[in-house]
Design a protein that fits this description.
The protein is of the alpha+beta class and about 170 residues long. It contains two helices and nine strands.
């Protein structure tokens, strides 16, 4: 009788372990829906990307990151709104991103949007007295959306340019 109790306890423990681990193995095929993952708003200082990911476990919390490459020009502008005789400007080039956590619905889908923002002018260019740092030109490109938890990723087509240099 004692051996039967031990075997029953081992079987119950093994069964509970399998049931507890089952959600970790339960997964569809996480992927972004390409035609529902797109830029919904863009301007000089930011770009917003809406996305939909499917094939997730219901209730799972996913960390989604939108990344975009930014080429931007910042200039010092005088009180008259012009570039002074000794123009001071800076061009930056780099990847910028925004992440957020999203919970999968009962159907295993996550929908949402994230906005990537360009650096503030004052953080990029220090202007002399009587001048203000202004963000004048932006080009957003190489946009992607990634689920950091499942490694699902999708590229978002398009290049978005705004602004013009101040004379």
């Amino acid at each position: 009788m004692r051996i039967q109790s031990i075997i029953a306890a081992i079987a119950a423990t093994a069964g509970a372990t399998v049931l507890a681990a089952a959600p970790a193995f339960a997964s569809g095929s996480p992927h972004f829906i390409t035609n529902l993952t797109k830029v919904t708003d863009a301007d000089l200082s930011s770009i917003t990307v809406a996305f939909k990911e499917a094939g997730l476990e219901s209730g799972s919390v996913e960390t989604i990151t939108v990344t975009a490459h930014l080429e931007a020009t910042y200039q010092c502008v005088n009180r008259g709104g012009h570039n002074p005789d000794d123009p001071k400007k800076t061009v930056i080039s780099g990847d910028y991103s925004k992440s957020g956590e999203f919970t999968a619905a009962r159907n295993g889908n996550v929908t949402g949007s994230l906005t990537v923002t360009a650096p503030a002018p004052r953080s990029v260019l220090d202007c002399p007295s009587g001048q203000t740092s202004v963000h004048t030109v932006s080009t957003w490109s190489n946009i992607s959306v990634t689920d950091e938890d499942t490694s699902a990723t999708v590229a978002v087509a398009g290049t978005y340019s705004f602004g013009k240099p101040v004379d």
